[in-house]
């Protein structure tokens, strides 16, 4: 009979080293407006998957797309200003 053993100790043995660094957490925090705008756009698109989009649905998707583009632009401008490079 073969025994099944767990590898929990091997998996979690390096958990302290696998935590995100402060720089990585800061990068995620800076990208959070883009992430949230992307989620809003996806939600607006998901609503219309099982039906014909109404005018209100179309406006909601259009507004969400504009918010996402604006958030991406703000992130790109902030990132290029921090590095000193030209975009």
Secondary-structure topology with pairs:
Elements: H1 8-12, H2 22-47, H3 55-83
Helix pairs in contact: 2-3
Give the key terms:
87 residues; mainly alpha; flat
Shape: flat
Helix count from the secondary structure assignment: 3
Oligomer category: single chain
Largest sheet: none
Beta-strand residue percentage = under 5%
Q: Which residue ranges are poorly predicted, with pLDDT under 50 across at least 5 consecutive positions?
A: none
- Tell me the structural class: mainly alpha
CA-CA gap between termini? 64 Å
H/E element sequence:
HHH
Instruction: Report the radius of gyration as a whole number of Å.
Output: 21 Å
Strand elements, count: 0
Name the helicity range.
55-70%
Structure, described:
There is one protein chain. The protein has 87 residues and is an all-alpha fold. The chain has three helices and no strands. It has helices at 8-12, 22-47, 55-83. Helix 2 (22-47) runs antiparallel to helix 3 (55-83). The mean pLDDT is 85.
Short description:
The chain is mainly α. It has helices at residues 8-12, 22-47, 55-83. Helix 2 (22-47) runs antiparallel to helix 3 (55-83).
């Amino acid at each position: 009979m073969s025994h099944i053993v767990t590898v929990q100790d091997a998996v979690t043995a390096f958990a302290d080293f696998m935590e995100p660094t402060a720089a990585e957490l800061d990068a995620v925090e800076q990208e959070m407006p883009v992430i949230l705008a992307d989620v809003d756009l996806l939600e607006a698109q998901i609503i219309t998957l099982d039906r014909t989009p109404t005018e209100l649905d179309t406006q909601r998707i259009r507004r969400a797309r504009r918010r996402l583009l604006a958030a991406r632009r703000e992130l790109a401008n902030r990132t290029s200003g921090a590095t000193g490079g030209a975009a």
